[in-house]
Amino acid sequence: MTKPGFFKRAVAGMGGLRNVLALAMFLVICATIPLDILYWNRAIKPLDYSYLFFAVFMLFYGVYPLYVNRRLTRYYWDRIKRHRLAVPGMIFILFLIAVAIIGPFFTGDAVQTNFKEQNFPPLGFTYQQGIYDVKSDNFTTVVSPGVPQHPLGTDDKGRDMLAMLISGARVSLQVGFLATLIAVMIGSFLGVSSAYFGGWVDSVLMRFTDIMMTFPFFLLLILIIFLYGPSLMFIILVIGATGWTGTARLVRSDALSLRTRDFIIASRSLGASDSRIIFRHMMPNVLSQIIVIATLSIPGNMLAESGLSFIGLGDPNVISWGAILNAGFRGINTTWWVAVEPGVILFLTVLAFNFLGDGLRDAFDPRSQS
């Protein structure tokens, strides 16, 4: 019997062709970074690289498994549809993602100011304000109606609210998805490793997790951002690097029952390495729990970024829903729409993710009704 070629052995050692292609795409993106710095004058923003990494990861480890296991995908989809609020939540999330991607092509610049158009109310509403008339030396009441050019109104600087809300959607979704991806990857690896190795490794990792959980999450974020300065990329990294503790605990509790299963013992007896058992056998078996945790963690991370922006610790170079809320809170009695619109959208977004998370949890829970 002839031995397989070097390429086949390498592919098998890396866990299959999918992992090889994913690694190749990651290396291409990494190789693009120095070329961009040296020759392209930083044409690609640093945060855009994180989108590329996220897109590649979701393509190979999100879309591809769903396509390959179409029968299992249809089975879980039928179970998700039984949750009446999960499907509307998912539709709203997909709509928000589509608006965040294509919306800027149809709206104006979110940071462009025009004081001649300040404080326009939403279409169908009117706004009364007192303006001092120099000629008559009196205050006159001016009624400003909503205009079609600004269907959701403008703020006190004349910025279009629709463009600002779309910009805020992009920021919130970026933080929600990327920070959750970082937190879930860290928490899942530590949780599975802790359950698999047990002993002193389990004790050290779980005691470290306990120490991290004793710190108030939001106060820890404020402290780190206050010390090192706000930027959107840094905020994403900090939220992801500090928000993994709950994931580690929940994944470990599921993975503990896998350590003594027959297929794990058989793999160990056949000489499989620890890394292969963790990534090829244990991780896929806790994937359903990871998906549910990730879906329910996204709104919490979005709220964390909005809270930082609301108290003035967000990235000043981007417009987020929290920053709009901060600006509108000061004029809530007059220009109510500046605070109400981002608040309502943020509320609906968090609610949609929670509904979808509940549906996924019911679909993946074998104890639920079949």
Question: Which percent bin holds the helix content?
Answer: 55-70%
**What is the string of helix and strand elements?**
HHHHHEEHHHHHHHHHH
Shape: elongated
Strand content: under 5%
CATH architecture of the largest domain: Orthogonal Bundle
CATH overall fold name of the largest domain: MetI-like fold
Helix count, DSSP H or I runs of 4 or more residues: 15
Superfamily (CATH H level) name of the largest domain: MetI-like
In total, the number of domains comes to 2
Uncertain stretches: none
Structure commentary:
Helix 4 (70-81) crosses helix 15 and helix 5 (86-102) packs across helix 6. The chain is elongated, with a radius of gyration of 25 Å. The model has no long low-confidence stretch (mean pLDDT 82). The relative contact order is 0.11. A hairpin with a 4-residue loop joins strand 1 (126-133) and strand 2. The protein contains 15 helices and two strands. The chain has a two-stranded antiparallel sheet with strand order 1-2. The protein has two domains: 1-68, no CATH class; 80-110 and 159-364, MetI-like (MetI-like fold, Orthogonal Bundle), CATH 1.10.3720. With 370 residues, it is mostly helical.
